[in-house]
# Entry
Amino acid sequence: MAHDPSKEGLLNAHSANDGYRRSFDNAAHDSGSDLDATDYLERDAAPNKRTPDAREKWSVRRPFAGRTRRWAQALYIGVALFVVILAATAFGYKKYQQEPPYGQSPPWYPTPRGGTAGTWAKSYEKAAKMVSKMTLAEKVNVTTGTGWQMGLAVGTNAPAVHVGFPQLQLQDGPLGIRFADNITAFPAGITVGATWNRQLMYARGKAHAIEARQKGVNVLLGPCVGPLGRMPAGGRNWEGFGADPYLQGIAGAETVKGIQSEGIMATIKHFVANEQEHFRQPWEWGLPHAVSSNIDDRTLHELYAWPFGDAVKAGVASVMCSYNQLNNSYACGNSKLLNGILKDELGFQGFVMSDWLAQRSGVGTALAGLDMTMPGDGLRWANGESLWGPQLTRSILNGSVPLERLNDMVTRIVAAWYQLGQDDEKKFPRQPPNFSSWTNERLGLPSEGSPSPQEKVEVNKFVDVRANHSVIAREVAAEGTVLLKNEDLLPLSRKGLPDAKLKMRRDNIRRATGQVRSGKFRVGIFGDDAGEGKGPNHCKDRACNQGTLGSGWGSGAVEFPYLMTPIQALREEFDLTKVELHDFLTDKPPHGTAADAGLADLELCIVFANADSGEGFAQWDNNQGDRADLKLQKGGDSLIESVASRCGSGVSDVVVVIHAVGPVLMEKWIDLPNVKAVLLAHLPGQESGHALTDILFGDINPSGHLPFTIGQSLEDYGPGAKIMYLPNAVVPQQDFKEGLYIDYRHFDKNDIEPRFPFGFGLSYTTFNISRIHVSPKKTKSPLPAPRPSPVASPPSYPTTIPPASEALFPAGFRALKKYIYPYLDSVDDMVSDPYPYPEGYHTTQPLSGAGGDEGGNPDLWAVYVTVAVEVANTGPVAGAVVPQLYLSYPEQEGEGGVDFPVRVLRGFDKVYLKPGEKQTVEFEVTRRDLSYWDVGRQNWVMVVEGEYRFGVGESSRHVAVEGRW
Ligand code: BGC
# Structure
């Protein structure tokens, strides 16, 4: 029920200087803009020293760098003037204007309370008992971070001491334990996506969580399924699993299950549409507001929110809302997104946590469904002034945030803790982490971010938690390597080439150069990306591209415990009694003749090149988080071309190995006749070199497949695929006008030939897919079964506002400066005007027909049809095939027909087969898989007229067999 503050007798008052109250759901009301650049710069002057990595992260990036800066500043001033002049005249015409199709976020209140799903019922019962005993201050503690660097992890809330609820330790990130020693640097999400291997997705999550638990972490800030990959140059695409919602959904859910099988709470992030780094958050780019991703309802459901649905269904404990605005309302204060879609429709039972400083209003975000604010500081970095903390306390006392809402926030967090079994003190001793994010020394301050005097304590215990996780890291890296081209060259022999091939090559060289070669096989290794460079941890947060590329940069990166470089592994693996290795570990293309360059005698050249990107707080070269383009970096194209033309005087074979955060353009060299083999190894993590030699020498048969399309140009991906590098308004507006048509959906719709299609990947063997069999399990019907009634009832608590005494600083309390406490100095300044709730706050919303349980209406997850195919290994060696199921919706003719992509991924599997072996693979297709989001009916709708087509093949452009239903 909506809370009506005017009916509250007690302390129904406002604080006179309560600035955060002005902010509601809508960005237009948001108080983010009352910061100016000077305010923001102050955080750089904060006296926190020893943490260059961490602090750099939050230091002001040069507001607008390079060309962006000049243009954006001019634009900013220009647009501001323009807006002021036009505002008055525009106002009068407003009512005649048509509503734009994008950029509107309707209100959805109040927040659905957690505790309705059977799967969480026991945890909610336990939580209710605990929460009912908490004081107001304790409840606020649980919801609010204690401030940046106030604990040892990147995020910590505060405990509810008297009832035994501990402080939670939250740590990045999706590929390992950030800022920690003796951990595993796993391959990044994009590499995991490229494995198309569910078991490995799960295993990596599980190993990651074992390390988290042993390091004293409660909540992992991963996996990442947003960005989805709308823009191939998007800076953080590599943290996720690929440019398709189905693949992201499965990989995200398997990772969540793996993580949570160890009792660690997983956080699925970033909800939603943080598709580019430019303008992702206020002030980081000099603008007062974040970009608004403007997305229509259907696209939001079918693409961007889809993988989050899988994670909720998998029982994820936490969802992190993103920095950007969605339809002009900050994601962490967007009631339609959090209350409507996430909590009502998807039935999310855990808690919503803000990205770090993504909370832009106090009461507004509470009402919109945020449950935990991180790191606790509010509009400005590390100043100790929270939008919640004492302000949340005050807003409960004065009635502006309904007590019921606070109770729900806390219950969701405590229930998640019980749900994951973290009340087991043996598994989760109530201790701080045994490492510090802020120093590598043994001794450090417990609250590094506070200038108050503190005693140093032991903060780093250097516990080695790696066990044998390098094995999983290596397997993922190898299986995530995609063989894109292979003209009878790979696998190599450790002796160089098998004898017959070697003879042929030498004959070629003799014919071309007149030189007769004998003796050892001569291999040249080219490129800085093959080597160690200045070491894997040379740059803060990995924000530079030097040495071999093992991960992207930002909060999603870790300190490498080691990085097995390609050159090291090649040196170990080649038989050096037969092979001579020549290193050219530079990106400088060889000049002059082949002989001048020392390349004339080479019989094989392996060239390494790469492309890097990362989080928007850091910049490398001209890549400001997002890549500046899709080219290979550091002159990779020229290096490859130059080596190819000189290797063995242009007749020896060339293998190209790419490490990259996403698609790169290959047009300059992919068709060169002696570029015989190309491997895309994505971001392989610490086991890079080993995984590569596993593939090169055929110990592992490549089975990676592309988790995105490789186009022939950026233009091929469509206009929506371009990063907005220059703001188009003070609040940059990014209209996702292409709707459903991103990546392969765009290529298919527009009949554009990709260089390599989504899902593509070669093997050293061949497969055959045949005998499709479609078995209906249920009858088609347009709508899912009616929404079921909740299995359980959310806990209810007394609604009397607690006494103000619960909110005051306890006598004699020694407060650390800048540390966020829940307490107030006084309650004398409460005022009693009625609280101006957001528009739509008192309108009761109809419950979604798509909802009803964790993950939504259970009927959406019911299997309606299965599709079976036979897969066979028809080649000479064992290997794993990845059959992929693509669904095409029944065609809808005429006006009013629904527009559908040519095909969408709706199933995949990975099957290991010996030569000659066959196996049947069955795909289960659910109602959700078969439905589209009907905006009018506000539900998932199955098409009952016409026939669904199911194509199964080895990529999105390869249909081996087709069945119908
Ligand atoms: C990132 C999150 C991360 C958080 C904490 C933010 O900048 O966007 O992904 O979890 O920092 O480090």
Observations:
- The chain has a mean pLDDT of 90.
- Residues 834 and 954 are 62 Å apart (CA to CA).
- The chain has 22 helices and 29 strands.
- The pocket of beta-D-glucopyranose is lined by residues 154, 172-173, 221, 269, 355-356, 555 (CB under 6 Å).
